[in-house]
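Structure first, sequence second, as always.
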């Protein structure tokens, strides 16, 4: 008899797996999966259509910023070279109340159909904020196993002329 397929516990955003603060030390999780997950009630990112989503969170430090992170998702080789791989897609959201019940706003998303692994550098992250990471598989290979790693990235400084009252006179 075959063992039952393990259901992804983080299928719903309110069951997201908390990865912590990547600015203290890089955070991540290995041997993750989206088996038997769905996308019911999930937002639609701009870079791809959802199929079988699972969720993770990370937090930024309480002071400082702006912050930036590198998110790396890795999977095995696709069939016939390997098994259990997934064609990964990733999106990052902020929440209006810093919880899973707030209104979600997409910060960034990415999908590269050429390779199964995915990486995304997310800039302009605010301090003292929980960010929600959606991991999905494309229609090509929608479910499988993967690793997720989040680490600090060099941040782009906020421009001094970001507000109309601080505009730079070009002549």
């Amino acid at each position: 008899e075959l063992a039952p397929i393990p259901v992804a516990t983080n299928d719903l955003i309110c069951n997201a797996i908390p990865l912590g603060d990547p600015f203290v030390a890089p955070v991540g999780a290995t041997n993750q999966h989206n088996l038997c997950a769905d996308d019911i009630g999930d937002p639609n990112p701009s870079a791809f259509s959802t199929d079988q989503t699972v969720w993770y969170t990370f937090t930024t430090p309480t002071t400082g910023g702006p912050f930036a992170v590198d998110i790396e998702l890795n999977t095995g080789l696709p069939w016939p070279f390997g098994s259990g791989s997934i064609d990964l897609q990733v999106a990052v959201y902020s929440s209006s109340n810093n919880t899973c019940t707030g209104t979600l706003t997409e910060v960034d998303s990415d999908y590269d159909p050429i390779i199964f692994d995915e990486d995304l550098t997310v800039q302009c992250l605010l301090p003292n904020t929980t960010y929600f990471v959606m991991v999905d598989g494309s229609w090509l290979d929608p479910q499988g196993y993967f690793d997720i790693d989040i680490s600090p990235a060099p941040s782009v400084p906020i421009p001094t002329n970001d507000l109309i009252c601080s505009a730079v006179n070009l002549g």
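Margin note: The beta strands are 17-18, 27-33, 54-59, 67-75, 88-95, 104-110, 118-125, 130-137, 145-152.
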